[in-house]
């Protein structure tokens, strides 16, 4: 359940309304999650936390809220700081009405305090005017006079206004519970907001409504999100918790500004790496070759022996000094050189020009009168060599069913799906499952690709699976890591038709963006099913919508 966390001993009240963390570190056992994290969020600022799963976004939010004490660090926050948990905390027997009224408890208390302070103005207490001013300021911040109207506006805006409030929380879906929890938190009007993946379970309209609410929020807001469209619309700055060359990094602006900054950083990184590699080669040549080849030469007459001794000794010292300097710089550069920038996601393996089996035109896949119960009823669907198709629609519309059937992993009740002879179709599933959970990523990769191809393009070289994880049991990897392995299998042997079901789910922001950019130049056909607003907003190919198992546009 959303709640305003009371101040604790390790968090000081922020009288200026700022949310601050200085030198925060946190470990669980021998696993360090946060290291010396510092941030300041002013009233009216909205800081988005980004980074891979497991880098500490949720941990940092809990620490900022006072729900968890850090190992070290200094914190300050407004007295009324509210947090939205990623997983709703609630009593299943509690009614929706009770949840909403609980959210208004602080507002009602502020209202009573204002009424009392106003009554005391008629007395002789010299402190009464100051108390009234403080109570009035608190009432204005909490917007007590519009609480009931805001309740209705929030429930309608988040798409749950038509659900009877006498239902219990156990009687509504998980997505509806999340929306009610969010509405309750916004209704509380805390001085600072902490949100963990707030757009989970929100459709486009509800997400846009939340964006408008936060854009006018007067206090500091810190939120963790994988929703790139939301980050771009709401954030005034981004805090990247992923390890980088300079540690955690703050970027001004939304996600578009972040991408531009990352591109500039990548260009500087590549330039510095190339320059250092050139310098390493030159220094190595100077140390290993120049010292051997350069020497005093030339015939010397007997009466020039003194000159030879003098000049030769000076030259030897000069050469020795230069070699010593070069050797020292070589050792320093070898020890402190920047690491090679990670490879950018790319696809290879399908001949360009003849994108599919020797022909540039014609059908690769044809779906005709396909029926699978009440899940799929598609009369006609075509995929050509250059197809770029985005399929949209609500959950249960039939998108995943269509892709799975096209990949040959789901049988039709009736109709047909024809594929060109020799066609290779690949599917990146939304829910990845490997047959043997005890197998390692390395073994799965080698078995699927064959030893020769796996050796020519090593799994670790794709940048999707960390070297420390290649020999772990795949069943012990996170959902995101398993999805990365599934993507690696496709990267190493790209199909003629690439089907992607919610491709950005469980992927980091940077990897999701790289994948989308790589798909633009994919040497084959691409069919994507996605809810991702950023992906949909930047899609330049064909668009098709599904509803109730049918293609509607």
Automatic annotation (TrEMBL):
Protein name, entry field: ABC transporter ATP-binding protein
Superkingdom of the source species: Bacteria
CDD domains per the UniProt record, alphabetical: ABCF_EF-3
Sequence intervals crossing the membrane: none
UniProt keywords, alphabetically: ATP-binding, Nucleotide-binding, Repeat
GO molecular function: ATP binding; ATP hydrolysis activity
Pfam family, one: ABC_tran
Sequence ranges assigned to domain ABC transporter in this UniProt record: 19-271
PANTHER family from the UniProt entry: ATP-BINDING CASSETTE SUB-FAMILY F MEMBER 1, ATP-BINDING TRANSPORT PROTEIN-RELATED
Organism (species): Leifsonia poae
């Amino acid at each position: 359940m959303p709640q305003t966390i009371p101040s604790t001993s390790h968090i000081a009240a922020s009288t200026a309304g700022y949310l601050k963390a200085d030198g925060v570190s946190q470990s669980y056992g021998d696993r360090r999650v946060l290291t010396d994290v510092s941030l300041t969020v002013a009233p009216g600022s909205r800081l988005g936390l980004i980074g891979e799963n497991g880098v500490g976004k949720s941990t940092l939010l809990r620490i900022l809220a006072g729900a968890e004490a850090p190992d070290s660090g200094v914190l300050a926050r407004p007295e009324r700081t509210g947090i939205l948990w990623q997983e709703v905390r609630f009593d299943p027997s509690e009614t929706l009405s009770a949840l909403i009224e609980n959210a208004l408890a602080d507002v009602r208390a502020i209202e009573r305090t204002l009424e009392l302070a106003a009554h005391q103005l008629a007395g002789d207490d010299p402190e009464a005017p100051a108390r009234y001013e403080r109570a009035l300021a608190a009432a204005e911040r909490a917007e007590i006079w519009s609480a009931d109207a805001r309740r209705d506006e929030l429930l309608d805006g988040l798409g749950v206004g038509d659900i009877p409030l006498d239902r219990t929380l156990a009687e509504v879906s998980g997505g509806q519970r999340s929306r009610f929890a969010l509405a309750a938190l916004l209704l509380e009007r805390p001085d600072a907001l902490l949100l963990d993946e707030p757009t989970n379970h929100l459709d486009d309209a509800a997400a846009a409504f939340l964006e408008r609410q936060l854009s006018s929020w007067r206090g500091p807001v810190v939120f963790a999100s994988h929703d790139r469209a939301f980050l771009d619309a709401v954030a005034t700055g981004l805090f990247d918790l992923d390890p980088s060359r300079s540690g955690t990094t703050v970027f001004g602006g939304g996600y578009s500004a972040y991408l531009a900054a990352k591109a500039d950083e990548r260009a500087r990184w590549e330039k510095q790496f190339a320059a250092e590699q050139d310098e390493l080669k030159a220094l190595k040549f100077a140390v290993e070759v120049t010292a051997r080849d350069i020497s005093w030469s030339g015939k010397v007459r007997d009466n020039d022996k003194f000159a030879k001794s003098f000049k030769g000794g000076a030259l030897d010292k000069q050469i020795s000094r230069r070699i010593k300097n070069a050797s020292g710089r070589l050792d320093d550069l070898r020890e402190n050189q920047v690491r090679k920038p990670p490879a950018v996601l790319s696809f290879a393996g399908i001949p360009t020009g003849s994108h599919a089996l020797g022909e540039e035109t014609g059908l690769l896949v044809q779906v005709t009168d396909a029926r699978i119960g009440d899940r799929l009823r598609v009369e006609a669907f075509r995929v050509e060599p250059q197809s770029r198709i985005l399929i949209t629609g609500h959950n249960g519309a039939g998108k995943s069913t269509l892709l799975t059937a096209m990949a040959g992993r789901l049988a039709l009740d009736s109709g047909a799906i024809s594929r060109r002879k020799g066609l290779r179709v690949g599917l990146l599933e939304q829910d990845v499952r490997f047959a043997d959970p005890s197998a390692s990523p390395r073994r799965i990769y080698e078995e699927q690709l064959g030893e020769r191809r796996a050796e020519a393009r090593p799994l670790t070289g794709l940048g999707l699976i960390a070297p420390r994880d290649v020999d772990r049991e795949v069943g012990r990897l996170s959902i995101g890591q398993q999805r990365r392995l599934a993507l690696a299998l496709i990267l190493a042997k790209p199909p003629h038709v690439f089907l992607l079901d919610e491709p950005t789910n469980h992927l980091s922001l940077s990897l999701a963006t790289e994948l989308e950019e790589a798909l633009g130049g994919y040497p084959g056909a691409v069919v994507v099913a996605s809810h991702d607003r950023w992906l949909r907003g930047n899609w330049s190919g064909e668009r098709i919508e599904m509803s109730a198992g049918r293609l509607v546009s």
